Amino acid sequence: MEKNLTSGSVLKNIAGFSLPYLLSYFLQTLYGMADLFIIGQFSGTADITAVSIGSQVMHMLTVMIVGLAMGATIAIGRAVGGREQERAALAVGNSVTLFMGVSVVLTVISLGSRGALAYALCPDWLLGVSGIWWAVPIGWFLADAVGLAYYWRKRKGLFVRTAG
Length: 164
Hints:
Elements: H1 10-42, H2 45-81, H3 85-121, H4 125-158
Helix pairs in contact: 1-2, 2-3, 3-4
């Protein structure tokens, strides 16, 4: 679906464009609040502090990745708007490469620090080590696999040349 943002009401276009981002940030905040509520019912101050800090770190990472995605969207949008299919395809490929690189860097950082996180976050060191040992690589792998599958599935339909 292609939508022309250069015509019509500016306020309506901005609201329609920004609403999904506002909703995602609101849901991220609700997720953090739900975590804090549940932990607050069953744990002490140290646990609440850990969940609060973890929620803020996740929010910061989310904002940074969404900012990168917006920049990639602008590059792709300019190329598509200028009807430059090769430049648009290059921008899509560069965006996928960028996000795969970011994913690899975050994976290396998280794999490198998971032992320290396990000892710091879990009073029962064995449960903490095994939980973080398996959760981090599985989570990153699944996120990468879903992203690549979506990209490969949509890749053929992104830039279809039409006669005219």
